[in-house]
From TrEMBL, chain A:
<protein>
    <submittedName>
        <fullName>ABC transporter permease</fullName>
    </submittedName>
</protein>
<dbReference type="GO" id="GO:0031460">
    <property type="term" value="P:glycine betaine transport"/>
</dbReference>
<dbReference type="InterPro" id="IPR035906">
    <property type="entry name" value="MetI-like_sf"/>
</dbReference>
<comment type="similarity">
    <text>Belongs to the binding-protein-dependent transport system permease family.</text>
</comment>
<keyword id="KW-0472">Membrane</keyword>
<dbReference type="GO" id="GO:0005886">
    <property type="term" value="C:plasma membrane"/>
</dbReference>
<dbReference type="InterPro" id="IPR051204">
    <property type="entry name" value="ABC_transp_perm/SBD"/>
</dbReference>
<keyword id="KW-0812">Transmembrane</keyword>
<dbReference type="InterPro" id="IPR000515">
    <property type="entry name" value="MetI-like"/>
</dbReference>
TrEMBL record, chain B:
<dbReference type="InterPro" id="IPR035906">
    <property type="entry name" value="MetI-like_sf"/>
</dbReference>
<comment type="similarity">
    <text>Belongs to the binding-protein-dependent transport system permease family.</text>
</comment>
<protein>
    <submittedName>
        <fullName>ABC transporter permease</fullName>
    </submittedName>
</protein>
<keyword id="KW-1133">Transmembrane helix</keyword>
<feature type="transmembrane region" description="Helical">
    <location>
        <begin position="136"/>
        <end position="157"/>
    </location>
</feature>
<dbReference type="InterPro" id="IPR000515">
    <property type="entry name" value="MetI-like"/>
</dbReference>
<dbReference type="GO" id="GO:0005886">
    <property type="term" value="C:plasma membrane"/>
</dbReference>
<dbReference type="Pfam" id="PF00528">
    <property type="entry name" value="BPD_transp_1"/>
</dbReference>
<dbReference type="GO" id="GO:0031460">
    <property type="term" value="P:glycine betaine transport"/>
</dbReference>
Amino acid sequence: MNLTAPAIEQLWTIHDITDQTMVHLTLFFSALIIVLILGLALGIAAGMNKRWGGILIQILNVIEMIPDIALLLLLIPITGIGAVPTIVAAVLYSLLPIVRNTSIGIISIRPELIENGIALGMTEKDMLLRIRLPLALPLIAGGIRTAVIYTMGIVTLGGIIGARGLGAVLQAGITRNNMTVILIAGLWIGILAICMDLFAAGGERILIWKYGDKT
Amino acid sequence: MTTLSVAIGQHLLLAYSGFLISAVIGITGGVAAVRISPLKTILLVSSSLLQAIPAFTLVALIVPFLGIGFIPALVVIVAATLLPVIRNTIIGLSSIDPILIEGATGLGMTWNQILIKVRFPLGTRPIFSGLRLSSIVANAVAIMTVFIGSGGLGTIILEGLVRFHTPGILAGVLPAIGIALSTDLVLSYLEKKAYPL
């Protein structure tokens, strides 16, 4: 193993790690944006309609029990290999925490607040936007944090089915038995993943401080 | 060419010996952390950070240290599944209404008696949700470890993937899903048995 600075720099260039990091982050953020929009919409719908919401959450629960790598590979016959199955798998896998937390968040509001809203003459839509959603934000943020971790995991796995990104660098390191590449790419992914988690955790803290139930 | 039954056998051995080791170390560690409070903070903070690292990264990172084969694969599975067990055990055992702990102390129960008769029964839910998450992660990581020569269902899947042969991929993926779902059923049954209320 050669861990001198020039050697690391050389491997970094040979394996295009800067480029692969950009690909990795693009995959990560595309999946995350889709899962946020879809998750919030489905979560609000699930909170408003308990029967269908229950069924949806049951389905998502079953998906969650499938090992992530199995879900990713199951998509290959349908979508082929590359970025598409990676993003689809990341979205499917990360939906549950956001949908569940959003629907629980908007349902479990203290009843006196809802009564206040009714007394003020608010419509259902006003109450959703001005009472339910703001108060659900801390819980939703918790769901997003879990989704960030899941999405990062699946995007990394995507490297083995041709999605490029840092997972592909890791796999190249394993197949070529190049310990230095494994160490560099592995530690780099670890740092990125922890930074994303810290970001999400920071956001969660701020929302809890701003909107958390202080009683 | 590995036959399917051999692959399933290797997969079960790898995934569930890893899972059992994690369960034992994780629950013991959780109890120790509840007993020694500085350890609790350290474990909660570090487990929350390390959980963010993708499992496939751990699979790769073990190679420079332990090489390839069954044992490194087992170590990776333990490393990936230990955190949720420890974390949820700590949360389960320590988020008990303090009035109940005071009541039990007032009845003259020792710390160990409180642990077994109050904390464990009331912490069943979080502890089992940690175990269930871990069993699924163990199953998934046991497939990924084919890249570091662990054998098992990953072998079948990798063969299918390399030859771009869909039935081959399914032959490996479907048993893995079946195993994950049945383990979850068993654990949810055990959870119902263990929960007193």
